[in-house]
Amino acid sequence: MTKVSMTVNGKAVSGEVEGRTLLSAFLRDDLHLTGTHIGCDTSQCGACVVHVDGKAVKSCTMFAAEADGAEVATIEGQANKDGSLNVIQAAFKEHHGLQCGFCTPGMVMSAAALLKENPKPTEAEVRDYLEGNICRCTGYHNIVKAILAASGQDVPAVAAE
Fold this sequence. Notes:
Elements: E1 2-8, E2 11-17, H1 23-30, E3 49-52, E4 55-58, E5 71-73, H2 87-94, H3 104-117, H4 123-129, H5 141-150
Parallel strand pairs: 1-5
Antiparallel strand pairs: 1-2, 3-4, 3-5
């Protein structure tokens, strides 16, 4: 067993993990932060995206021990301090960027990383950035609209692919 310590959503946490424990498993099983979803365990769906030291990471591809000493942000830490939805979450709600909700935490975390890197992305840039996130319900159109709205841009009619 290996002792790990990190800051998750602004709080210091620690635990003991086996060397093979994935960050996604540590977050869900040890810290009970179940908003980080496990969709594939093969790094293809993006449902498990979290931020590690400010970078978007698929947490099913990283060992918990690799995050020792890191700052980790999960979907549970994205709301405003008063508990209200942040601008990205509110845009997803307003523009119907979710249906079943399974992919939503990873989409929101990816959107936050995109908007940090590129505050005013084009529709094409949003679609390109989300390439590693799979949604089986929405067809992505409303997700793209939500991200554009969260960036403060006018939301054009999004063309079908």
